[in-house]
Amino acid sequence: MPPYLGCFSDVGAMSHPNLLFIQVLSYQGPYVITPHSVMNPSPVTDQPLSALVYHALSSVLGGSRLSASVVLQRSDLWKPRLRVRSQLTNLQRDMAEELLPPASISSSELKLTALVISHAILNPYKTIYFPYPQWGYISDPATFLDVHGRVLVWYLPGIMPLARVECLNEIHLPLKDSLVKCSKAGGQSQRRFGHKHVPEEDGNQKFGHGRLMNSPATFQQAHNVIPHVLWEHFWRLIDPQRLEDKVYESSSLKKQVVRQWLKDISYAEEFWNTIADIVLPDLAQVGRDAISAKADWVITQPPCPIRWPSIYLGIDVIVNQETPPHLDQASAPSLLSLVPGTMVFLAGKLLTHSVPKWEKGERIALAHYMKDAVHNRFGLARPAFTQQKHLLGKFLQT
Hints:
The chain is an alpha+beta fold. Helices cover 30% and strands 14% of the residues. The protein has ten helices and twelve strands.
């Protein structure tokens, strides 16, 4: 069975999506992030995130004469986008000095998330595959669509306030000695892991460097970065993952420090799951089905099985590393600004993605991904792409 997004000769030949989710936590240097006190934090709200997104969009699209039967361009949505942009700017200003609860999501954070998602929906970049699009530098929340209106990328900068970024940064400090390090030497491990990034101002790194791969259900074979699409097919022929192979928890989950990290970050992972429910509902449901099914398939080893907080079967912690362009398939490089608190969902089998050299500060990235072979083992069907008409259809004419 081919991967979620395999080779295609034209737009209509694409298979179903495996949208990689990347959360950028830390980029210190030009940004000054001060730990916030837990006194008088913003209250936590019971209002669902989906209701907040619905309200944000309905308030700016009510009475619109636009039609959901065509793929809308950025120029079609500029007026409602400006209104949401104004609301987002005002909220960010009000939250600048706000105190946040240390292990839960506040009402202001929910509102911020809803406005960032709404702005991305109203800021669609439509592309064809050849030639590569020339969009320039993009710093506002956006979606990237194919010619049929299928969402290939969700770009959500600023979806987490800097105070929350700082809280999550501290959770990752205990993992420093568990990171798998790799030298700058060549070879397969270098292509897989990239190499250490040394900040220009000094060579000292508070969070260390390296990568930690975590999964509650995986075959005993590492994910490989293949430099060319032809090599990908060759690799599958010589080293396939068979449906009769056993499924295990990753060895990293045996470490107490990793188990504590998962417990500490669970509140954020569960919130990120609700974001996926809105932006990628079909994929989120398949992820939940996989988590439910793993108990019948996964061979666990002491200590006891861990409670996995994410709908994704893989979470890689990547600290201070420049990552070379991945396979997934040759395509245009990303032009997205990875500021602190950025969330990106992208079709990693379709779009080349990498972490190039940066200038100052440290960076922590959490790469979340589905495991197609494991889903096949569990007998789960692939999800469909989210389409623009699904996001806007309830507000527009049909």
